[in-house]
What we know:
The protein has helices at residues 10-23, 51-56, 67-73, 114-123, 139-142, 157-161, 181-186, 188-199, and strands spanning 2-7, 35-38, 41-46, 62-66, 78-82, 88-95, 106-111, 127-132, 148-153, 164-173, 175-179. The protein contains 8 helices and 11 strands. The protein starts with a strand and ends with a helix. Residues 135-137, 151-158 line the site of 1-O-pyrophosphono-5-O-phosphono-alpha-D-ribofuranose.
Amino acid sequence: MLTIALPKGRIAEQTLEKFEKVFNEKFVFEDRKLILKKAGFTFLNVRNQDVPTYVMHGAADLGVVGLDVLEEKEYDLIKLLDLKIGQCKVAIGLKAGDTIDWSKSEITVATKHTTIAKKFFESKAMAVNIVKLYGSIELAPLVGLSDCIVDIVETGETMKQNGLEVGDTIMQSSVFLISNKNSYYNKKSQILDLREQLAST
Ligand code: PRP
């Protein structure tokens, strides 16, 4: 039996579609249920940012999560497979026409990705003041809360529609199958089998 933490929403649906193809059965969470048991797997429906936490503590053997979320958490987990879904990038966003003034003594950055943003600006020897937000990040530079943002860009439409421009790319991201280290060693053949099957969909 393998327990797999899935992030609520579109990524969970796309992952379950892969399981449907592999096992030729329906995999759907009923109504508001957070647990789905099927074909020897237990799926947990959790918040995106919580996936690495479930896997780190061994409450789930495996998880499905974006590389950006994984980078943020800095946990010691095994990346098993790029599922090739949820492709996006983490990038700087600036008010249209603005550029980053690298000569400033400090820059204020609004983001959900505080670790990634801090590392990026520090690698450029720029002192950074991070304003942690949980969503609608694009608003921050428009109302003077920050000089720029660090956020997910998929199509670029959200930034565009809010008068922002996409600046430097910090990292490319897509969704990975990850594993708890102990689970990987204790259930290696089961986990590698599943990895193979998902890789071939
Ligand atoms: C992400 C991100 C942007 C948007 C980018 O938000 O924070 O707002 O998607 O996509 P686009 O480049 O295709 O416009 P998400 O939908 O994950 O919601 P949240 O960040 O507000 O939780």
